[in-house]
Design goal:
This protein has 226 residues and is mostly helical. The protein folds into 2 domains: 99 residues, Helix Hairpins (Orthogonal Bundle); 72 residues, HscB, C-terminal domain (Monooxygenase, Up-down Bundle). The chain contains 6 helices and 2 strands, in the order ββαααααα. The chain has a two-stranded antiparallel ribbon.
């Protein structure tokens, strides 16, 4: 099976604007230029055969977006629905085994991309990975003030006996999440990846607290990780 695109050797690293088209894996037709929209390039413009996923594309490419932290989630969702209307495997159920496989792969990749980019935490972690600074498992934050804050939150959750008490922790934590997301956005805008990396570690902790306090009930022992 021939992929629809190959990277242009003059581009380092390769991105969508630098891709040169080969040809459709079925009819051999080659476009004259790379389409501007993802939906315009996943099928051959001549025989309308569904093409396989391009291995060089990142999640942002599937939504025609630049790799930035700030994303319009409503717009993302609209594009996702339009793409899935075309890519859903049911639409290709009467096609050849190759096109069924392409549809399943394209749809699965689009699902993963959407779940990642719609969520600030997952989006930030993915963006760090794209920029060469992935968040490794067990990454510690050694800032004394933050460590003290962790201890205080742990104590507040352990001491909580009523929903009203845990609600106070939950609402305060939501404010912290909002503040950190804003700081992460600014760090990425300024291309301060080291600060973005540190802030994403904090956001992971606050999101963990959010999950725990959301599902809290009296007598349940909570385990907080950071």
């Amino acid at each position: 099976m021939i992929l629809a695109f190959i990277p242009n050797s003059e581009c380092d690293p390769p991105d969508r604007a630098c891709l040169r088209i080969i040809k459709c894996w079925v009819c051999g037709h080659a476009r004259e230029q790379v389409p501007q929209r993802f939906l315009d390039e996943i099928t051959c413009e001549k025989c309308h055969t569904l093409q396989p996923p391009h291995p060089e594309y990142n999640y942002y490419d599937l939504f025609d977006k630049a790799p930035t932290f700030n994303v319009n989630v409503k717009n993302l969702q609209s594009q996702y629905r339009r793409s899935q209307t075309l890519l859903h495997p049911d639409k290709w159920s009467m096609s050849t085994p190759e096109q069924k496989r392409n549809a399943a792969q394209q749809s699965s990749l689009l699902n993963k991309a959407f779940r990642t980019l719609r969520d600030p935490l997952q989006r930030g972690l993915y963006l760090l990975k794209l920029r060469g600074m992935p968040m490794e498992e067990g990454t510690d934050n050694n800032d004394p003030a933050f460590l003290m804050e962790i201890m205080d939150i742990n104590e507040a959750i352990e001491d909580a006996e009523t929903e009203a008490e845990i609600s106070v922790v939950h609402e305060e934590n939501k404010k912290q999440i909002g503040d950190v997301i804003q700081q992460v956005s600014e760090a990425f805008k300024e291309d301060d990846l080291k600060r973005a990396h540190t802030l994403m570690g904090r956001l992971q902790f606050y999101e963990n607290i959010n999950q725990l306090t959301t599902h809290w009930h009296p007598g349940r022992r909570l385990t907080i990780t950071h």
